[in-house]
Each structure stands twice: as structure tokens, then as C-alpha cells.
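Bug #77: duplicate submission created two jobs. Keeping one. Sequence:
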Amino acid sequence: MRMVIWEDASGYKHRSAVRDWDSDELAMHGISQDPPTVDDLDWEAIKRDLHNSLVLRGLFDYNDLVREQNGVTGAILSALRGRVIGLYKRRR
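Kept job's structure:
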């Protein structure tokens, strides 16, 4: 078996296992090796948590971002990281 990364009509990339002799075009029919779907995330809660994190970090305008270089990254990670890891844990 070998792994093939391919893109669907909606622009999403996927990884599938195919037989060694199958062409790459058959990857969409192979055994899916995708990460968990992010559709299962609570996007409303993520938006709320991201907003709250930006407020608590004092990031209200572009000047705040320039002054607090890692602020946006930290806010995004705090809203997303644990939830994405949870998707993987539930899949075990």
C-alpha cells in the first residue's frame, strides 16, 4: 500500500491508502487516512472564545497587534488547540 494526497472538487486535500499498482486517480476510492473532520467543532463557541481572548489580551486595533506580536497567535491557539486535539482523542 502507498499513500496518495489528492484534492476534491471543493478544494479539500485528502490522504488515501491505495494499492501499490493503483494509479493516483483511484485515490478517492482508496482507504481514507484523513484527520478528523473539523465540522465536529463547536464553531460558535470557538468564535466566542477567540473574541474573549482578544479582549483579554488587549488586542483592539492594529497598533495593539504590532505592540503584542504573539497576541493573535496566542488567542487563536487558546480558542482552537484543545478542541482540535480533542477531535483526535475521541477518534482513538
